[in-house]
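queue> pop job 88
queue> type: inverse folding (structure -> sequence)
queue> payload:
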């Protein structure tokens, strides 16, 4: 009896140790939702071998299985909390749609194991990852409804002159293989952008950076940029679904110099506020006009070369 109690106490102590180690490792590995770059969901599951394991091999296998199950559980919780837009979470969509629930569940079960290791004392950790955006096997593909009728970007507000672009200089870190915009003045054949008024476009902008620092911007999968009159100037309805599912509508960063998605010559504007539960940036009408005019010249919004700094 005493021997049995001793084994139980040992197992409990090991489990507590594993929880502490797992929490520390999870923090170090950057688990959670990454809204910058490729936008990934990452979790770290942990497992402990049961005391009934007959040998070290079985103990390791059972600990690994427990770690995988724990990772799936954490990933499911994380996925449900992702904001599709400023008012809707993935969980909301799963509750109202059996099709969405089935797709999301399948994605979770197909999540990638990116690393795993046995932990001294009989434990095991598994790091699991799932893409938020991507042409295949992504959360965006499961929850975003195809945009069958693409709406043109609105024309600038003729009653307000467009602003002069910001003179802020940034050293954007663009590396090969990133989702950086093309530099120069690319062709925008097939663009839904409103034509730039003659003589008003400066041209050459490769992307848009919206500075939302200090406002408490909440990252969402499908943000909307509005002007101060409440009129949307950039949203999912204006874009090609395949492009959004593959790349997302925007990336989020806390460093103005880490906005590679906007390319080497970004147009920088400052948000004047937020709306819809802090998910949508608001621009002055003058800045919104400048964005629309420049997009008409180079089509950076169509390519979703947008970065929010928060």
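queue> result:
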């Amino acid at each position: 009896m005493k021997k049995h109690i001793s084994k139980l106490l040992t197992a409990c102590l090991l489990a507590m140790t594993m929880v502490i180690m797992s929490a520390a490792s999870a923090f170090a590995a950057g688990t959670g939702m990454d809204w910058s770059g490729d936008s990934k969901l990452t979790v770290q599951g942990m497992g402990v071998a049961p005391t009934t394991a007959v040998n070290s091999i079985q103990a390791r296998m059972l600990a690994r299985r427990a770690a995988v199950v724990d990772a799936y559980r954490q990933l499911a919780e994380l996925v449900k909390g992702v904001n599709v837009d400023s008012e809707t979470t993935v969980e909301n969509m799963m509750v109202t749609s059996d099709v969405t629930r089935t797709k999301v569940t399948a994605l979770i079960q197909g999540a990638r194991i990116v690393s795993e290791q046995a932990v001294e004392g009989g434990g095991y950790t598994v790091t699991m990852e799932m893409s938020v955006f991507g042409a295949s096997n992504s959360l965006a593909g499961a929850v975003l409804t195809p945009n069958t009728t693409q709406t043109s970007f609105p024309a600038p507000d003729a009653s307000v002159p467009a602003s002069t672009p910001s003179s802020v200089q940034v050293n954007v870190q663009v590396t090969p293989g990133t989702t950086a915009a093309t530099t120069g003045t690319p062709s925008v054949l097939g663009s839904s952008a409103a034509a730039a008024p003659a003589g008003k476009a400066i041209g050459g902008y490769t992307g848009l950076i919206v500075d939302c620092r200090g406002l408490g911007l909440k990252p969402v999968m499908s943000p909307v940029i509005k002007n101060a009159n409440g009129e949307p100037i950039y949203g999912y309805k204006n874009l090609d679904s395949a492009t959004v599912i593959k790349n997302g509508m925007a990336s989020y960063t806390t460093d103005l110099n880490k906005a590679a998605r906007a390319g080497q010559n970004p147009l920088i504007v400052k948000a004047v506020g937020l709306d819809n539960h802090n998910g949508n940036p608001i621009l002055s009408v003058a800045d919104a006009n400048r964005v629309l005019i420049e997009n008409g010249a180079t089509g950076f919004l169509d390519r979703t070369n947008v970065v929010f700094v928060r």
